[in-house]
C-alpha cells in the first residue's frame, strides 16, 4: 500500500491539501500519515520552562492531530495515522519519509500570489531540499480526478536515472494522458503522439531539441509532446497548463548552487508560488 505524508500547520491551505490527499488516497488505495512539526514560542524556549511547556504543547498537538486523523479516516474511508514532533520540519520530514518508507509528501500553498511570496518559504525550501516527491496543492485546487498530466520537462535537469516513477504510476492508476512540454525561446511545431501509437515521433522530438526520447519512460501511457516558444519559461509553463487543461503539473527541481539560490529561485519553486493546479516535484535523487 502507498503511503502519503500530509504536512499540516492547521491553516486553511493545509486543510485543503489534506482533503486533496485524502481523495487521492481513496482512489489510489493509499494510506495517509498526518504530520505536524512545531517549535515552541520564544518565551517558552526559556530553559526553566522548556520541559513543562514542551510536554504540554506536545500533548495538545497529539490530541488535535488524532482528532483530525480519525475524522478524515471516517469521512474518506481510508487509513489515516498521525505523528508530531518538536523539530524543524525540513529535517523531520527526512526522518519521517525514511521511517515510513513514504511515497509522497503533500503540502498546501496559501491563496494569493502575494501571500505565497511571503508564506511559501517552508514549501519552496522543502522542494529545494527534498530527495523525495513533493505534491504542492494550491488553496483553490480541489481533487476531481487526474485526466491530464502536464510534464514540464527541462531536459538539462533530468538525470538519466530518473524514471519519473510516481508520475508513471499516477498516469497508469488514473488512465491519464501525459503531455511532455518543453519551453524555449524559439517556437517549433507541436509534435503529436509518441511510441504509444507505434510511431517514432518521440525520437523526432528528441532530435529536434537535442535531447533524449522519453517514450521508454511512458510505455503504455497515452502521451504527446509539445514545444512552446516563450522568453519567460514560467509564463510558458503557465500557458501550457492553461492550453492543455492540466489537472496536475509535474516538474523535476533543478538543484541550484548556493549563489543561484541567493539570486533566483528555481523554476519549480517559482511555479509552486504561481500555480493554480497541483504541482508534483520529482527530484532526481528520489527512490
Report the portion of residues in β strands.
Answer: 15-25%
CATH superfamily of the largest domain: HUPs
Q: Largest sheet at a glance? A: 10 strands, mixed
Read across the widest sheet, the strand sequence of neighbours is: 3-2-1-4-5-10-9-6-7-8
CATH level-3 fold name of the largest domain: Rossmann fold
Walk me through this protein's architecture:
This protein is of the alpha/beta class and 287 residues long. It has 2 domains: 2-138, HUPs (Rossmann fold, 3-Layer(aba) Sandwich), CATH 3.40.50; 148-279, 3-Layer(aba) Sandwich (Rossmann fold), CATH 3.40.50. It has 10 helices and 10 strands. The chain has helices at 12-28, 50-76, 89-100, 113-119, 121-129, 165-174, 201-208, 233-244, 258-263, 267-274; strands at residues 2-7, 30-38, 80-86, 104-109, 134-138, 148-152, 177-184, 223-229, 248-251, 279-281. It has a 10-stranded mixed beta sheet with strand order 3-2-1-4-5-10-9-6-7-8, sandwiched between helices. Helix 5 packs antiparallel against helix 10 and helix 8 crosses helix 10 (267-274). The longest helix is centred in the first third of the chain and has 27 residues, at 50-76. 40% of the residues are buried. Mean pLDDT is 81; it is low at 187-199 and 257-264.
Amino acid at each position: 500500500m502507498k503511503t502519503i505524508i500530509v504536512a499540516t500547520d492547521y491553516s486553511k491551505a493545509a486543510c485543503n491539501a489534506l482533503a486533496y490527499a485524502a481523495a487521492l488516497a481513496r482512489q489510489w488505495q493509499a494510506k495517509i500519515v498526518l504530520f505536524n512539526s512545531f517549535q515552541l514560542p520564544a518565551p517558552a524556549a526559556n530553559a526553566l520552562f522548556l520541559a513543562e511547556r514542551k510536554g504540554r504543547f506536545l500533548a495538545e498537538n497529539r490530541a488535535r492531530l488524532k482528532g483530525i486523523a480519525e475524522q478524515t479516516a471516517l469521512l474518506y474511508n481510508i487509513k489515516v495515522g498521525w505523528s508530531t514532533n518538536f523539530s524543524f520540519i525540513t529535517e523531520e520530514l527526512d526522518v519521517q519519509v525514511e521511517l515510513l518508507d513514504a511515497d509522497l509528501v503533500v503540502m498546501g500553498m496559501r491563496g494569493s500570489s502575494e501571500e505565497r511570496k511571503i508564506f511559501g518559504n517552508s514549501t519552496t525550501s522543502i522542494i529545494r531540499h527534498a530527495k523525495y516527491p513533493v505534491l504542492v496543492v494550491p488553496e483553490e485546487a480541489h481533487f476531481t480526478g487526474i485526466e491530464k498530466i502536464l510534464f514540464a520537462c527541462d531536459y538539462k535537469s533530468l538525470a538519466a536515472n530518473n524514471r519519473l516513477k510516481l508520475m508513471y504510476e499516477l498516469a497508469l492508476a488514473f488512465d491519464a494522458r501525459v503531455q511532455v512540454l518543453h519551453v524555449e525561446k524559439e517556437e517549433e511545431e507541436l509534435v503529436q503522439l509518441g511510441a504509444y501509437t507505434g510511431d517514432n515521433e518521440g525520437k523526432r522530438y528528441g532530435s529536434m531539441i537535442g535531447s533524449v526520447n522519453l517514450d521508454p519512460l511512458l510505455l503504455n501511457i497515452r502521451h504527446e509532446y509539445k514545444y512552446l516558444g516563450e522568453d519567460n519559461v514560467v509564463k510558458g509553463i503557465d500557458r501550457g497548463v492553461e492550453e492543455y487543461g492540466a489537472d496536475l503539473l509535474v516538474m523535476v527541481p533543478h538543484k541550484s548552487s548556493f549563489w543561484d539560490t541567493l539570486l533566483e529561485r528555481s523554476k519549480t519553486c517559482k511555479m509552486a508560488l504561481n500555480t493554480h493546479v497541483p504541482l508534483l516535484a520529482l527530484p532526481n535523487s528520489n527512490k
